[in-house]
Write a structure and sequence with these properties.
The chain is built from 14 helices and four strands. It is globular and about 60 Å long.
Length: 318
């Protein structure tokens, strides 16, 4: 649910990144934008480049890498925009600069992939407080009964690896190998529950086949710039603080082995204090589920308790 909520947020952010200034013709502004991008790629960043332009140019440069390196949904070298729109022979340091019409076509083609990468990164760092040990097993649990995931493991593995890489520092290949190791570890220790589809087995077969894993590196390294844009530019500490608002039942401790979050409300328990941070309450329930410390009980009763607990609290201006 948090993933889908963030799609609306990211859609608004990206629309502002490429929006034309008020009163400016969008076609003419697009030509100006392309000219500035081509100049920056050819001659290097200009002194008058704005932060907004640097964000645009980063996303456009990703689009220029996709035909050669691949994306979430396309393998490296797949033909793009082959219906008469052409390409250019101008290659700058291994970077392909495409004509304007082709570039806008690439952006349109990759818009959903860009959005998915940003949403996954923000979801991890906002709603899961950057905790891979909860995030990675849980998203694969949630995908376990979705047939399209089984048929397209490559895309969903790349999504997971890019989210995991947002935790890592260092060179792109080291971040890739660390992300693979993290995903392999968390899927092995907390595999998706048995469902109608053999998802857990398929994931582990893929993750243990080095030839298949290495094929993910090129699209991974192309998309890493989008991952870092989401983590270091679009992420807001203020938003995360608001999601985990001051709550008398919430305890967050930092130890040498990482962060420990605890919401002091036991299974099927009610409390006089209202839940000021629903995000923290739900994250605590997920944490207990992943740790398999949740008490056995009727699922309908537990669901009703969750809804009633979340509905508690003041209304109106408060």
């Amino acid at each position: 649910m948090s993933h889908e909520l963030l799609h609306g947020h990211v859609r608004n952010v990206l629309s502002q990144v490429f929006a034309s200034p008020q009163g400016k013709n969008s076609i003419e502004y697009g030509k100006e934008m392309y000219a500035r991008f081509a100049d920056a790629m050819t001659n290097g960043p200009q002194k008058d480049m704005t932060t907004l332009e640097s964000i645009r140019f980063l996303l456009l440069s990703y689009c220029c890498l996709v035909p050669r390196l691949g994306s979430l949904t396309s393998p490296p070298g797949e033909p793009f925009m082959s219906k008469g729109k052409g390409t250019t022979d101008e290659v700058i340091g291994g970077f392909q600069l495409y004509p304007e019409v082709t570039l806008w076509g690439l952006l349109e083609h990759q818009y959903r992939n860009i959005s998915e990468i940003i949403v996954h990164v923000l979801d991890l760092h906002y709603f899961y407080r950057s905790r891979l040990e909860i995030y990675l097993p849980f998203i694969w649990h949630s995908w376990a009964a979705v047939p399209v995931v089984v048929r397209d493991l490559r895309q969903y593995l790349l999504r997971s690896l890019l989210a995991a890489a947002s935790i890592e520092r260092g060179g792109s290949y080291q971040r890739f190998r660390n992300a693979v190791a993290a995903l392999r570890h968390y899927i092995s220790t907390s595999p998706p529950a048995p469902a109608h589809y053999s998802l857990a087995q398929g994931i582990l077969v893929y993750l243990n086949d080095e030839s298949l894993i290495e094929e993910l590196y090129l699209p991974f390294t192309a998309a890493l710039r989008v991952t870092d844009l989401a983590r270091y530019v679009f992420f807001s500490a203020r938003i995360r603080s608001a999601l985990f608002a001051a709550d008398e039942l919430l305890e967050i401790r930092q130890n040498d082995d990482g962060e420990h979050l605890r919401y002091a409300l036991e299974e099927l328990e009610f409390h006089d204090l209202y839940i000021a941070s629903p995000t923290a309450f739900l994250l605590d329930r997920l944490q207990r589920l992943m740790e398999q410390k949740q008490e056995d009980g009727d699922s309908d009763r537990r669901t009703a308790w969750l809804l009633l607990a979340l509905a508690s609290g003041p209304r109106g201006d408060k």
